[in-house]
Amino acid sequence: MVLAAVEHGPPLSFETPFISLIILLLVVLTLPPLFERIKLPGLVGLLVAGVLLGKGGLGVLNADTETMVLVTDIGKIYLMFVIGLEIDLTKFHQTRNRSISLGILIFITSLTTGVLVGRWFGFSWNTSLLMGAIFAPHTLLAYPIVNHLGVLGNEAITVTIGATIFTDVLGLLLLAIAVSIHSGDFSLFSLVAQVLSLVIYAATLLFGLDWAGKWYFRRTGDEQGNQFTFVLLAVFLAAIGAQLINVERIVGAFLAGLAVNDVLGDSPVKEKVEFIGSTLFIPFFFVGVGLLVELPAFISSLTTYIGMTLAMVMGVVLGKLVGFGAAKWLYRYSWNQALTMWSLCLPHVAAPLAAAIVAHRIDLINDAVFNSVIVLMVVTAIAGPIATKQFASQLRVSSESASTDPENSFHVTDWNASNPPQRLSAGTQPFTIVIPILDRRADQHLVETAVLLAHHEAGQIVPLAIAPSYAHMDDPILVNTLQKQQAMVQTASDTSQTLSVKAIPVVRIADDEATGISYTAREHNANLVVMGWHEDATGLRARLFGTTLTSVFWASHCPVAAMRLQAEPANIHRILVPVRDLMPKTIHTVRFAQLFADAHHAAVTLIHVSDRRTPQAQTTEFQADLEAIVAYNGPQTVDQIKIITHDDVAEAILQLAKTFDLVILRSMRRRTAGGLMVSDVTTQLLRELTCSIVLFGEPHL
User: pLDDT per residue over 652-675, tens digit each?
Assistant: First the structure.
């Protein structure tokens, strides 16, 4: 009997951790896509699922079980960490003074409206202060929209993103003070001691973790697994450190995100950190929030306290509007800029919700206020992105994004955007292309393409084969592999002779292919890496463990053109290049397409897919700017520029691509907003295009 009990285990119930985890995974997998189809944020679906599965609904999940408490706490900490990680410190430094003043201004107006609403409904000064802490922070949920519209270079957008740091930090500091007052430990001395300890803790974390992270990453090189573990350890240690000084753990997590922000940059490790959080822990957190809402009590409190709910929503809307109205007057922004800034800061999802949960847990706010915060989150999460799309689509792309100035122009001998262009002249190093060869037959078209490009630029190729390293250099397997690799690069060298292109064959022993490719490109001072596409770079395995392609994109000092060629280079006659915006990196992709087309005697068609609500004048101006840029420099191979109006960018490109031989795409990294993954048009195109594809990416800057 004992043996049978051991074999079969305890009887299954909905409260067992295993069943709870299965239910959570099913919810995360199915609900967000369904809600996104009806134009609602995916996180709303997670909240609804939590409400329906909780005590007031089906009773399948219980917020008080150890499993739910653990995953919800981890998700809350992870969410605040990702918020800090996603803040663009480079853009912040560009407009530091205005970002600081704007952040303080928005904090003051939001705090004032929060306190007024709280006092109006008879709450204590401390609870009213806490409501100000909920009103002040915001979530850049509409970041992908302004990114898609190509207006990130607009100063108003840059200043708003930088101001987010201060609204979040000041809001969390206010939360810490309110919690301290509520616990009864508050006095003038304790306030000074609390602020002083927080300042020391923050400085230690920001500078110490930044130094330790850079030191560790230098020591570990390409060991992404260890680096990922280091980041996770840093997050949770920072959270525990905050708890030790009587500050909420989410404050430590947010500061940890800021601290490792500069360490991670846009590396594959950052992508993995965000991916794990966005697909598991953060969605679990939103489901957990829904579980805290008991449906009957929620409906009852809304009907009873509908005035307070409306007051909180209007308080947030008006508080931000007053702040950005003042910013318009101070900085002489247009109304379009001011309203875009306001709509961008309208969603109250991440930090405000985390603050509300902390306050609700210690009874600093009651159920009515907490339920009103849930409504506030849903309303602003829906209204914010809609308003942003409306106002941002009428913004003008900044001059830095669409400049045709010679200093910003692109030339094939200058692939590093940070250096001024230098033209070919006698005595300069020849244009060099590194071609990693992984399969002799599959990469034949690749070699032919690289030879054509090198011939066009009077350059040379470096056929490269990588042999995996062994402990003993006389290992028979290694010797045999080296012989095969030597034959592969020799075949590529023979191909180059047909056009009298110089070849420098290289066989390299390396621990992994990506390292070997990146090192060889740097040692030969290559201008371009042309490599085949033999892996799925968009699937789950690739996002968890990475691929050779993604690692080369990250590590290479020069641009990388990853090619999936379905036909011989001689049969490539029509090339399609989607142009999303006029940012420098997009223009560099267009320049590469011009070079590619000229080398292959092909014609380029540029396509820009515009939203239906974009004003005709702006579309006409965009086309004129693009025509000027194309005509300014580079081979004149662009025979057509198309502006298409369509609601689905990917679908429009897929339909047009059916009549083209090749599509050249700019490599784009996916990022998160409000903790959830944002779909990337490039990813969908890579998955569904049937013609030849080139994915062009520039060095990490």
Answer: 899 999 899 999 988 754 444 333
User: Please, which residues have CB within 8 angstroms of residue 574's CB and are 6 or more apart in sequence?
Assistant: 602, 603, 605, 659, 660, 661, 662
Rounded (5°) CA angle 404-409-411: 150
Query: CB neighbours (10 Å) of residue 297?
Result: 14
Main-chain dihedrals φ then ψ at residue 547, nearest 5 degrees: -135, 170
Q: Which helix (H) or strand (E) holds 320?
A: helix 306-331
Angle between helices 96-120 and 125-135 in degrees, nearest 10? 140
CATH code for the domain in which residue 615 is found: 3.40.50.620
Number of Cβ within 10 Å of residue 601's Cβ equals 11
Domain co-membership, 408 together with 468: no
Domain membership flag for residue 424:
no
Lowest-confidence pick of 422-426, 496-500, 588-592: 422-426
Cβ-based neighbours of 557, under 8 Å, separated by 6 or more: 416, 518, 521, 522, 699
Per the DSSP assignment, residues forming a β-bridge with 38 are none
Asked if residue 177 and residue 87 are part of one domain, the reply reads: yes
387 plus 450 within the same structural domain:
no
The rounded distance, in Å, linking the Cα atoms of 644 and 624 is 15
CB contact at 8 A, 140 and 344 = yes
Q: Which domain holds residue 315?
A: 2-34+42-286+294-396
pLDDT mean across residues, the chain:
79
pLDDT tens readout for residues 619-655 = 788 888 888 878 776 677 888 888 888 878 888 899 9
Which of 373, 354, 381 is closest to 308 using CA atoms? 373
φ/ψ bin of 246: left (φ > 0), alpha (ψ from -120 to 50), beta (otherwise): left
Q: How many domains in the chain? A: 3
Phi, psi of 593, deg, nearest 5: -60, -40
Q: Out of 40-49, 66-75, 683-692, pick the least confident.
A: 40-49
Instruction: From 410, 15, 327, 295, select the one nearest 160 (Cα to Cα).
Output: 327
Q: Which of 537, 561, 585 is the last residue of a domain?
A: 561
C-alpha distances in Å from residue 19, one per residue of 16, 329, 467: 6, 56, 46
Distance CA 591, CA 568 (A): 22
Backbone angles phi, psi at 562, to 5 degrees: -90, 125
The answer to whether the predicted template modeling score (pTM) of the entire model surpasses 0.85 is no
Buried b (16+ CB within 10 A) or exposed e, 605-619: bbbbbbbeebeeebe
Q: What is the pLDDT of residues 187-225, one digit of tens each?
A: 677 778 777 888 888 888 888 888 988 888 888 876 777
Task: State whether 452 and 590 are in the same domain.
Answer: no
